[in-house]
Design goal:
- Among the domains are: 91 residues, no CATH class; 58 residues, no CATH class.
- The chain has one helix and nine strands, in the order H-E-E-E-E-E-E-E-E-E.
- The protein has a three-stranded antiparallel beta sheet with strand order 1-2-3, with no helix packed on it.
- The longest helix has 17 residues.
- It starts with a helix and ends with a strand.
Length: 453
């Protein structure tokens, strides 16, 4: 195409050259002398020449047949010129250097109008018949393209990249794909095969599913809800003792899906009286989750003083009301038949009950000299003495025919004059005959009593 155009443009010049034509780029025609200036203007096919005489300041216009010159600014159709823009002619302009109007297919790229011009009529090469560079979106399948539907839609059968759509291209192919996120991650909302993630597809969707085993078995490690082993879903799963599907903590199954039991800290209605979740038997709830009471054998702190269980109220055990000790030695009460006496805090002291309340302890009259006693019955007696009821020694009454005069001035029957040894003296005549600190009585009936220090 380019060679034919060039030949058409060169033909007129070749004929003119053979006829002695001179190509004058200045547009002045044949060279000549003189001082005249000439201006040519061409309109259609006629030529007008205006001559100005500089000396006479006169202007003359003539029309003559001009010499054909491409580039003189005059379009000469008779010389096969389609245009002539003078200095503005060019192979990248609207008027070529051969004075031809630039057109798509002439092999010349008209700047600002054409992006290419390969001078052929092949429309599927790198330059289309519209003199545009082949590109994705021009509606023609060019080399390197697998399709070109000429639109900007990425959800149809041809992508904007002029590639056939496929799963993983990042565009959801309408009517073919459910989704397409352009990645191979099976834990998001779009999985392999460009399918929307759903419970049961075998892939755990992050942030949505706790599990997904891809089956419809509802009582295995992953229920059909894909919520995982969820305590409270009402379905006992492996690892759960129970699951009643409610939030109650007072029934047989706790919220932790563990069977209710004594000590879990929750009172099971109808089964437990209480449940404080500890091992103490001295507070408000026993270890068997029953309420404390007097007689349970455990001392309820702050409430009971003692608790001997079923022995409460027995001798030497806790009182029946758990308010303190029950009947016992030392309480001041004679608890028959277990005690013979009980003097309370005085038990074990002289003259009171024994410490074990088994009987009277040391006392005047028990026959044993102890405590403050001078004698006790026969224990502690000296000759010619007797033991009074208060366990004190006293003078023994003697017969008149045996009494001896042992006053200070008379010595009788071997007695010392001063009568200091009452055991050797039989008696005294008068009480005033006794020495100081000696006691003796003189009765009206003449009875004489022994003097004893």
């Amino acid at each position: 195409m380019k060679s034919r155009a060039l030949l058409g443009l060169l033909a007129p010049c070749l004929s003119l050259a053979l006829a002695g034509c001179i190509f004058d780029a200045t547009g002045l025609g044949e060279s000549g002398g003189g001082s005249e200036s000439s201006t040519e203007s061409t309109t259609d096919s006629s030529s007008t020449t205006t001559t100005t005489d500089s000396s006479a300041s006169a202007t003359a216009t003539t029309t003559t047949g001009g010499v054909p010159v491409c580039g003189n600014g005059v379009t000469e159709p008779e010389n096969n010129e389609e245009c002539d823009n003078g200095p503005a002619n060019g192979d990248n302009r609207n008027c070529t250097s051969m004075c031809q109007i630039a057109k798509c297919g002439d092999g010349l790229v008209n700047e600002g109008v054409e992006s290419c011009d390969d001078g052929n009529l092949v429309d599927d090469d790198e330059c289309t018949n519209a003199c545009k560079l082949a590109s994705c979106g021009d509606g023609k399948v060019d080399p390197g393209e697998t399709c070109d539907d000429g639109n900007q839609e990425n959800t149809d059968d041809c992508l904007n990249s002029c590639l056939v759509p496929f799963c993983g291209d990042g565009f959801t192919h309408a009517g073919v794909e459910e989704c397409d996120d352009g990645n191979e991650n099976n834990t998001d909302a779009c999985i392999t095969g460009c399918k929307l993630a759903i419970c049961g597809d075998g892939f755990v969707q992050d942030g949505v599913e706790a599990c997904d085993d891809g089956n419809q078995v509802n009582d295995d490690a992953c229920p059909n809800s894909c919520a995982g082993v969820d305590c409270g879903d009402g379905i006992p799963q492996p690892g759960e003792e129970c699951d009643d599907g409610n939030m109650m903590q007072t029934d047989a199954c706790l919220n932790s899906c563990v069977n209710a039991s004594c000590g879990d800290g929750f009172v099971q209605m109808g089964v437990e009286d209480c449940d404080d979740g500890n091992d103490a038997n001295t507070d408000d709830c026993l270890n068997d989750c029953s309420a404390p009471s007097c007689g349970d054998g455990f001392i309820h702190m702050g409430v009971e003083v003692c608790d001997d269980g079923d022995k409460n109220g027995d001798y030497n055990q806790c009182a029946a009301d758990c308010g303190g000790p029950g009947p016992s030695c030392g309480d001041g009460n004679v608890d028959m038949p277990d005690e013979a006496c009980d003097d309370g805090a005085d038990n074990g002291k002289y003259g009171f009950c024994k410490e074990d309340c088994s009987g009277l302890g040391e006392n005047c009259g028990d026959g044993i000299k102890n405590g403050p006693e001078e004698c006790d019955m026969n224990d502690g007696l000296k000759s010619h003495t007797a033991c009074a009821n208060d366990c004190k020694l006293e003078c023994v009454q003697v017969e008149n025919d045996f009494w001896l005069n042992c006053d200070m001035n008379i010595s009788t029957n071997g007695c010392e004059v001063d009568g200091t040894d009452p055991e050797t003296c039989g008696g005294c005549g008068m009480s005033n005959d006794c020495k100081m600190n000696e006691t003796c009585t003189w009765d009206a009936d003449g009875q004489v009593y022994f003097c004893f220090m």
